Amino acid sequence: MERLGTKYGGWILPTNTTLNENSIIYSAGVGEDISFDLLLQNKYNCKIFLIDPTKKAIKHYNEIINFYKNNEPFTGNIQKDYLDIIKPLNFNEKKFTYINKALWDTKTELKFYKQTNENYVSQSIIKDMFGEKYDIVDTITIKNLMNENNNNNIDLLKLDIEGAEINVLNNLLNCKIYPKYILVEFDLLIKNKDNFNETKLLIDRLLYENYNIFANDKLNITFIRNI
Description:
Layout (H helix, E strand, L loop, with lengths): L1 E3 L6 E3 L10 E5 L6 H10 L2 E5 L3 H16 L11 H5 L9 E4 L2 E2 L5 E5 L20 E7 L1 H7 L7 E4 L5 H10 L6 E5 L1 H4 L7 H11 L2 E7 L2 E6 L2
Parallel strand pairs: 3-4, 3-9, 4-5, 6-8, 9-10
Antiparallel strand pairs: 1-2, 7-8, 10-12, 11-12
């Protein structure tokens, strides 16, 4: 196995995956660290859809473009190991598509709650995950996103979406969409907001749907489907 990305934003995958230049990646939860996505694209030349309506995340992605074009500095809370990891890479902007929406189980508009510390980038659809202030954002399902972009399948799905992972993954399975690789941070459980044992129920469902746990890094779990 190998870890792609920073200590903060990296994910564990098999050393030799089935990914290639035709693979479709959905990566939800951009924040201010796309080291994993940049390394993944650089290694496999795959197409990556970045999904995050957070204003700081959108700003960071624009700074990524300017960093590779003009070596302009970043203004956000950048990890100490970020620049050393991403600087040597060949950034192919044409392989990235940015989706300014939040993944959810329905296509609608919802409150997107901010953290009480405005320096922190993450926001959440789930009430009581963070503070009371919020933005209104458009939401989209994975199925909607696939239809809009003419994607017949997803090869890898990465979710770091601050508690919304339960609804999104249950909807994914309800639609019988089965990415080969699912990488998910179980924030509802990590932040002690899982009052109804939803995380365990979802993991059990994934195991029933022929997914195996390949790696578990403090509830950042990599699932691989056997079929």
